[in-house]
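User
Please review the sequence:
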Amino acid sequence: MDDERTTDGPPSPDPDDASPEVHAVAGEPAGAPADDPDATTDGPATSAGNPQPSTSGGGSGRSRAWSRPTALAASTVVALVLGFALTVQIRSTAEPDPQVATREEDLVLILEELNTREAELRRQIARTRQTVEELSTGQRQSDRAAEEARARAEAIGILNGTLPASGPGVALTIQDPDGAVPASVVLDAIQELRGAGAEAMQVDGVRVVVSSAVSGSPGALRIDGIPLDSPYEFRVVGPPAAMEVALNVTGGVVADVGRVGGTAVVRQADVVTVDATVD
C-alpha cells in the first residue's frame, strides 16, 4: 500500500511509445515535416507532456483574421475618397465662379449705363418737344399776328378806297328823269348806307370814302368833282337787309326821291363788287 502512489495527471508515456516531437510551423499543417508538405500522421501530434491542439481548419481562420482588417482598411479608403470628392463638389458648388461674378458685374454696369442713357434721351426728347411746341406756338402767334395785320391793312385800304372790295351787299338805282334830284338826297343816301354798316361804296364808278363830298345842282351832280349821270348807280358792300331797311324807312331816301318825281329801287345781292379806287 505504501508503494502505491497516485497522481492527479495522466500516466507518464512510455518512452517506447512516444512519437517523434513535431513542431507546428505557421502556415503548415501540424505533424508534417517542414520539408514534406504531403506527409501525414496517424494521429494528432503532441509535444512532450502536453497535448497538441488540432490544426484542422486553422488556415481558414487565419484567412478570416487577415481579411477582416483588409476589408476594413479598404472601406476606410473608399469612405475617405468619397468624402474628399463630396467636399470638393460642395465647395465647387458653394463658391461662385469668379468669371461668372465678373460677367454679372459687367452686366450690372451695362444696365446702369443703359438706364442713364435712356434717362438722358428722355430728357432730350422732352426738351425737343418743348422747343417744338414753343416754336409752334410762336409760329401760330406770328401767323395770327400777321393775319390780323393783313386784315387791318385791308380794312384800312377798303376804308380809304385804295383797295377794291366784294361781298354781300345791295345795289341802289335812282332814276331822275326830270333832273330834279338834289345833291342833298344823294348825300342822305350815302349817310344812311354808312349808318347801316356799309364797308365799301361807289356811285357811277366814283369811289366814295370818308372825305368824299357831293356837290352840284340837280341834273349836274358831282362827287369829289367828278360828274354823275342819271340814273345814279350805287354799289355797296355790307349787310344787305340792314341797308335795305335803312333806305326804305318812312320819310327816308326812297320817299324823298319819289317826292321830286324820281324812283329809287333797292336790291339785295349775295356778291357785290366795288372795284373803283382812289389814288
User: Anything to note?
Assistant: The radius of gyration is 73 Å.
